[in-house]
Design goal:
elongated, alpha/beta, GMP Synthetase, Chain A, domain 3, about 180 residues
Amino acid sequence: MNGQDQYRQEIHSMEKQKIMELLYEVKDPEVPVLSILDLGIVREVKVYTEEDQQKVEISITPTYSGCPAMDVISMDIRLKLIEKGYRHVVIRQQLSPAWTTDWMTEEGKNKLRSYGIAPPNPKQQFCITEMFQEELVNCPRCNSTHTNLISQFGSTACKAMYKCLDCTETFDYFKCH
């Protein structure tokens, strides 16, 4: 690698870091306390030069196929980068590998809990071993495990609706997948 190529690579690396900081400002429209980085949907950021123009390519993975928020997220990424002077931006949706709650940051899971949404369990936990049993979900308000599934779908398809039988509050649970 010659000196100019190495210099260009260093510039791209610094630009990539700036872009990652900007992406932290882009929020999930369905859960606005989470950035798209907290959510873990940003798979790759590439910065390169083509025809003497700097280009940015960002790959994002939906939390589930057909997630309606992806169009809004793509638009918000593009607007944030354009606002900061990036003119040539390509956003790609990457479906494979499929998104998993394992990609969420611990900070993101804590933000969910503080917001009143039970974060996904590290692995599904069950109180009984029967088929089609309810998952054990802690209430984000009082931390009780004495909760009951109300609906497989909450405010969005990636969440379920639960009720705490101790504090009587209803809450969303970000489903593990």
